[in-house]
């Protein structure tokens, strides 16, 4: 039997590769008659750089950029095998993990550092860029990113204005004459994993603002500022930026790139799956094992396990999902869903024990395979 192990990471605990290796180790302990194929996955969020670099024998590039509060910080992006494609996680420069809880305030944070990462990739000769947009600390509509790439912003008095969240509604003109010329010959794919619109009750401010430090009384103003900025951007594009699904991710980062036809917005899992030829790998195997740290209602909105299950179902392949935390009563698409917990345990202990828990889960899957084989006879 050929088994494809294609899991996402377990956040704050193990990388996708480590998860796949631990499951494989447990399976090998239980059975020696399986052909195991490992393919670590990601959906555009945390771990996308590592996953794609590892899978393509690429390399990591470290560069100096600015964090969400414009402090110098070292950040890493990936060059895929062949050196023509860069993969960037905006969280490396503009992520919420760059800030303490006290520092988080989307009125003042910026995506400037993400723009610097794109510029560094251009300096490396890349003309194709995959941009993962999970884990941001910002609600600036991507204006900071444009600023780093050469755009300038002006208020009603034609005075230069800093394009952060609190100032978006004061911007009246965007000068793109100094935008990096290399962008015109570059393909940028934005890898998102949610379908929220830019504004409104399900938009960037109301849904994601609180986790980025916004207080309840801030949300309406942040939402209005984003809408004002989007309506200004409408002058530069024929697209209705307020209705495009997925632009609510990462504080609206995509709208600045979309407005000037600098990027396309794609489902992150689909993008990664295509890059790694996942569907072909699924067809070549008999059993598919996937997973991530938490499977909940959001899993069916484009997350890795559901994407894997959807492809496996299309090719009539059985699929098992493993997870650290199961928070849904509707795990559609999976033939079997296995929480890795063997007994009640607190979160710190679970994170520290992730490797052994996953290895033991691999053993259980091996036992299940053996049982089903015996029942089939």
Structure characterization notes:
The protein has 377 residues and is α/β, with parallel strands linked by helices. It folds into 2 domains: 2-40 and 277-376, Rossmann fold, CATH 3.40.50.10350; 48-270, Alpha-Beta Complex (Glycerate kinase, domain 2). Helices cover 33% and strands 19% of the residues. It is built from 13 helices and 13 strands. The strands form 3 sheets. Strands 3-4-5-6-9-10 form a 6-stranded mixed beta sheet, sandwiched between helices. A 5-stranded parallel beta sheet has the order 2-1-11-12-13. Strands 7-8 form a two-stranded antiparallel sheet. β1, α1 and β2 (35-38) form a beta-alpha-beta unit. It is elongated and about 80 Å long.
| Radius of gyration from the alpha-carbon trace, in angstroms | 22 Å
User: What proportion strand?
Assistant: 15-25%
* Average pLDDT reading: 92
CATH topology label of the largest domain: Glycerate kinase, domain 2
Major β-sheet profile: 6 strands, mixed
Instruction: List low-confidence stretches.
Output: none
User: So how many helices?
Assistant: 13
CATH class of the largest domain: Alpha Beta
CATH architecture level-2 label of the largest domain: Alpha-Beta Complex
* Count of distinct strands: 13
User: What is the CATH superfamily label of the largest domain?
Assistant: Glycerate kinase, domain 2
Order of helices and strands: EHEHEEEHHEHEEEHHHEHHEHEEHH
Strand order of the largest sheet: 3-4-5-6-9-10
* Total number of distinct structural domains: 2
**Helical content band:** 25-40%
Helical/strand content category: alpha/beta
């Amino acid at each position: 039997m050929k088994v494809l192990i294609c899991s996402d990471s377990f956040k704050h605990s193990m990388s996708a590769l480590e998860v796949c290796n631990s499951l494989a180790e447990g399976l090998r302990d239980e059975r020696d008659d399986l052909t195991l194929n490992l393919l670590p996955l990601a959906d555009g969020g945390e771990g996308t750089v590592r996953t794609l670099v590892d899978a393509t024998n690429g390399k990591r590039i470290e560069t100096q950029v600015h964090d969400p509060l414009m402090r110098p910080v070292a950040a890493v992006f990936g060059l895929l095998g062949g050196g023509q494609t860069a993969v960037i996680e905006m969280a490396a420069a503009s992520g919420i993990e760059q800030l303490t809880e006290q520092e988080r305030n989307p009125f003042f944070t910026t995506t400037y550092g993400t723009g610097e990462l794109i510029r560094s990739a251009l300096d490396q000769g890349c003309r194709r860029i995959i941009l993962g947009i999970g884990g941001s600390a910002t609600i600036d509509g991507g204006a900071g990113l444009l600023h780093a790439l050469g755009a300038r912003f002006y208020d009603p008095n034609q005075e230069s204005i800093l394009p952060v969240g609190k100032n978006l509604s004061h911007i009246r003109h965007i000068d793109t004459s100094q935008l990096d010329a290399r962008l015109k010959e570059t393909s940028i794919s934005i890898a998102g994993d949610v379908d929220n619109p830019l504004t409104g009750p399900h938009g960037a401010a109301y849904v994601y603002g609180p986790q980025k430090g916004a207080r309840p009384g801030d949300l309406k103003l942040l939402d209005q500022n984003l809408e004002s900025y989007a309506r200004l951007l409408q002058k530069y594009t024929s697209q209705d930026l307020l209705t495009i699904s997925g632009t609510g991710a990462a504080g609206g980062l995509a709208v600045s790139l979309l407005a000037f036809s600098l990027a396309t917005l794609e489902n992150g899992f689909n993008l990664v799956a295509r890059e790694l030829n996942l569907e072909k790998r699924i067809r070549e195997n008999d059993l598919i094992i996937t997973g991530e740290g938490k499977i909940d209602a959001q899993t069916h909105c484009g997350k890795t396990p559901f994407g894997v299950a959807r492809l496996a179902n299309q090719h009539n392949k059985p699929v098992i999902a493993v997870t650290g935390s199961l928070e849904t009563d509707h795990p559609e698409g999976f033939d079997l869903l296995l929480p890795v917990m063997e007994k009640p345990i607190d979160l710190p202990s679970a994170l520290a024990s992730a490797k052994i828990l996953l290895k033991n889960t691999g053993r259980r899957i091996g036992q299940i395979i053996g049982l089903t084989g015996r029942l089939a006879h």
